[in-house]
Amino acid sequence: MNKGKITIHDISKNLGIDSSTVSRALNDSPRVSKKTKEKILKKAEELGYQRNSLASKLRTNRTNTIGVIVPRISRHFFASVISGIEETAFDAGYEVIICQSLDSYEREKKLVDTLLSNRVDGILISISMGTTNYDHFENYKNNGFPIIFFDRPCEVSKNTNIIIDDLKASLEATEHLILNGCKNIAHFSGPQTIELYRRRYKGYIAALEKYNFPIREEFIFESNLMKQDGIQCAKEILKLPEIDGVFSANDVTAISAMQYLKTQGKKLPEDIAFVGFSNEPISAVIEPSLTTINQPDFEMGKVASTLLFNQINNKTVLNQTTILEPELIIRKSSIKN
Amino acid sequence: MNKGKITIHDISKNLGIDSSTVSRALNDSPRVSKKTKEKILKKAEELGYQRNSLASKLRTNRTNTIGVIVPRISRHFFASVISGIEETAFDAGYEVIICQSLDSYEREKKLVDTLLSNRVDGILISISMGTTNYDHFENYKNNGFPIIFFDRPCEVSKNTNIIIDDLKASLEATEHLILNGCKNIAHFSGPQTIELYRRRYKGYIAALEKYNFPIREEFIFESNLMKQDGIQCAKEILKLPEIDGVFSANDVTAISAMQYLKTQGKKLPEDIAFVGFSNEPISAVIEPSLTTINQPDFEMGKVASTLLFNQINNKTVLNQTTILEPELIIRKSSIKN
DNA sequence: TTTTAAAATACAATCGATTGTATTTTAAAA
DNA sequence: TTTTAAAATACAATCGATTGTATTTTAAAA
Q: B159 vs B184, which has greater pLDDT?
């Protein structure tokens, strides 16, 4: 029936009140009398009026919307960051548009474009693994558009980044293996094009150096840290029987490696101890349960969004890196009795 | 510097070409000559023009955007459904706005409202656990607005629902426990206000009836199926030592119950066999690995979105339920040697 | 009761893109 | 070279809400 949506003009005509007054009434402006407001609100309800945000956003040049781009929403870490963002956003009266880049550069670029054409007030992004070119951010940053990078920072030029102290956490994780008797510790590393994995790598190296352990290139396995990469790494490890500990740059790879090694008759943690990174929910329930680094995910979301809202409202761009503290969660996979 | 965004009017003035021609050129209309198009495209690029989707959507009364509301994006099942939706949407040239209701009725209502005020062309929704009142859908449905319900259908009046065959799957799951020697099978059930959990409950009952097993009320535990509910259920089970099998309406509860029972010295599956529902990734890696029902998640997303796009474009509302086939994945938790 | 200030409401322009219609330009036909 | 049809471009209205300014109404003060 009622094909065309009800507009303020319908209410206006219906009541013989100018649409500007209707608009002000619906926005609870003090310029409209109580009596008129009530009449308008009642009629709006009656006609099933629903504000057209597109028109409102176009006119006011303010969308009260932010965009969030993460590699994948299914990752527990990102889902938690998003929860943190949404909580802050809700309180601040912002809408949140969630997007996943699936770690593809092309997709990420397209998403940034779509968000901007929808005139979001700011963007929070954890850049995709496939991204090595940052031009699509530079343009907008130069115009003072608020973009904040979290977890996986933007490496070029000055930006507002929110990261965790990967280096320190990785050093601690590796040190923990050393203190638990590991002599030959391998590292499952991610793509070195990504700053975050370089920091984790550096933490591993720093721990070895601290204890005067030799750095052995053949103990370092670089991959995309997917499930199948873990199996591949595990196979390589079996060729190097002296390896008695692994610090993996994420949980997923550690877990798939562990599962494979178990099928090959390895005893964990007795033969090989493991420490992961991220504290995926799965880590707590596998056997042996995985020692890992817990990241302050929810907090990261809150911090990132709070900073973004500040930038949006004060128009002050900080270009400053905030570092949050992660925490080593000790479980069974790293304790050789 | 360049505070105000570039519009077609800037290009228009800059080249002395009317803005309508600029608009048509940017949309590759055949009404503009090749030469003019090239000139306009070049200038647009040069000025860093970016279309204002808000204005475009307002004018055309078409947003090419759909909204998706799920209880939580972190749930593997929903993340996969979303991937399916996004794939179809991408091919069809639609934007997707992802929202999570966190199983709250209030939040869900607000999200529906926000999506509609942003004039999405249609909505895909898996209703929240907290939702028992469906008025917020009825209004819009009556106006012919395309809404499709998936996984957790809308129970009132006629709607387009896409569900899996929960009853059949639950029957199979329970039957599987019976065939593997379980004599006293408990059921962890969800809120009976939700159709989906009623169907799973019915499947459980149907299996018992098929094999002439008595239905014992004290073996049926209703909860919200969260992690802590599983522990609670496990505690109850310990008081009923005759229970030798459990069919749980989701994996999360099954897993936390299993973990608790293990700490209490129970042998799984020897003492108590388990079958879950959902095939969460975690199910494959716990010990014993959990037998469960795999739902065609990605496919559900594709089917739901395809149906939605049809409704949007043909204006034909089907009000028809599509039932997809789930699959029993047999792992170790249910096989008593 | 008249004057005046304040309160309430109306008028009109605007945000940026789109689109039906009118006008101008170009090229083909006479 | 003039006429005519087609191609290209310009004009102007519109989508729905907002907002600065102008006008009208109301209520208080004189």
A: B184
